[in-house]
Design a protein that fits this description.
Layout lengths: L10 H14 L3 H16 L5 H13 L2 E2 H44 L3 H29 L5 H6 L1 H17 L4 H15 L3 H4 L19 H16 L2 E2 L5 H11 L5 H13 L7 H33 L3 H4 L3 H29 L3 H16 L5 H17 L1
Parallel strand pairs: 1-2
Helix pairs in contact: 1-4, 2-4, 3-4, 4-13, 5-12, 5-15, 5-16, 5-17, 7-8, 7-15, 8-15, 10-13, 12-13, 16-17
Length: 390
């Protein structure tokens, strides 16, 4: 990544662009990476097509939410560490502020009937949205639901199904399962060269409203838990859902089941990366300090992987063993996401109206072109208010 030509934009312009994208960029990770291509490659010509594709490949290969990972890489292209830091902070900051404000409102008004009515409808719609996201990720990352396609990638499908079953049974994330799937797939499909030759293997480094209510022990737990979560998010921000559910609801009890679904809903109605829901979760668990620690711990692995891998990425992207390792992990992570839909759905779909709202959300995502999640969430909120009023 040598700079042959000086950049045509300044660091201030870079930060301003990502601040704007983080403030108004709705539609999820796929839409956000599309906006970056349209704006920075086609319209502004800040990047070449090759530079953009390299960044997108890195974002898909390394752990971290897709859109944030790509944004950090784009900042790194011409301005290295300073650019990566500016782009990452500018992209995440607007939605972080929004979820903290929503967390404050949630603590103030969450017990009121009208707020409960809103989230009655919203929670059901979220289940439908996550279900469709899990389906799309399955098709994109593993393969179509056809016998021939499933036969050719039978091992990935086995990992996927195993992750679904284990997530439903244990109701928590199993990081060891993900790592095991990645290693097994790598060893079988593309074993590293050092395993084939009798040489010493090189070392591998894997790398009022409760605003200020927290305790140090909780902050440490939040930091460690979200650091692990951020390390195993591949491709889509919603892949973090099973991690969060197993930890914040089952293991630590920071949120109730309904609060967790509401937290996912908050991520859907705010712009920027979906993973920013961790700020809302952190706020409910330990006030503003908890929100800061949760967000920093989640995005830190994404940032570090990008700035460490970017200089030598041309070599890394050609390594078939690394690709196979990521494919194995991704199959298990998406399976866990599908399993979490079942676990959360059992608790959130509590009657016929919520079941109908979830079905309508699925239908809207499948059959109405260009509709995005905030529109569905808003419609579900109105339906929830009407149902409770009647």
């Amino acid at each position: 990544m040598e700079d042959a030509i000086p950049p045509v934009y300044t660091r201030r312009e870079l930060a301003a662009y990502f601040l704007k994208l983080g403030t108004w960029g709705f539609g999820g990770p796929v839409a956000l990476v599309g906006y970056m291509h349209r704006d920075l490659v086609e319209d502004k010509a800040w990047l070449t097509e090759e530079e953009y594709k390299e960044g997108l490949a890195l974002a898909q290969l390394a752990p971290g939410p897709l859109a944030a990972q790509l944004g950090i890489y784009i900042g790194f292209v011409h301005y290295r560490l300073i650019g990566a830091t500016l782009a990452g902070l500018a992209f995440v900051l607007p939605s972080f502020i929004m979820v903290v404000l929503l967390g404050m409102a949630y603590k103030l008004y969450g017990g009121l009937p009208w707020m409960q009515a809103v989230f009655y409808g919203v929670g059901a719609a979220v289940i439908g949205i996550i279900a469709i996201s899990a389906y799309k990720l399955t098709i994109k990352s593993i393969g179509k639901l056809e016998l021939s396609a499933m036969r050719s990638k039978w091992m990935l499908w086995l990992f996927y199904i195993a992750a679904i079953v284990i997530t439903v049974v244990t109701e928590r994330e199993e990081i060891l399962l993900f790592i095991t799937c990645g290693i097994l797939y790598m060893l079988i499909k593309a074993p590293p060269q050092w395993l084939k030759k009798p040489v010493i293997a090189p070392g591998i480094i894997l790398l009022s409203i409760g605003f200020w209510n927290y305790d140090g022990k909780t902050l440490l737990r939040i930091g460690w838990f979200f650091l692990k979560a951020g390390t195993f998010v591949f491709g889509s921000g919603l892949a973090i859902v099973p991690f969060l559910h197993g930890g914040v609801v089952k293991e630590f009890g920071w949120l109730t089941e309904h609060q967790f679904v509401d937290a996912v809903a908050v991520a859907m109605i705010t712009p920027g990366p979906v993973v920013i829901t961790v700020g809302f979760v952190g706020y409910l668990a330990a006030g503003f300090p908890g929100a800061c620690v949760a967000a920093l711990a989640t995005f830190l692995p994404c940032y570090l992987f990008t700035v460490m891998l970017a200089p030598s990425f041309k070599k890394i992207v050609k390594n078939v063993s690394i690709k196979a390792f990521v494919e194995g992990i991704t199959a298990a992570v998406i399976g866990a996401l599908a399993g979490s839909v079942i676990v959360i759905g059992i608790r959130s779909i509590i009657d016929i109206p919520t079941a109908l709202i979830a079905v309508l959300a699925v239908a809207g995502m499948l059959y109405i072109k260009k509709i995005n999640e905030p529109v569905i969430i808003a419609a579900a909120a109105v339906i929830g208010l009407l149902i409770k009023a009647l």
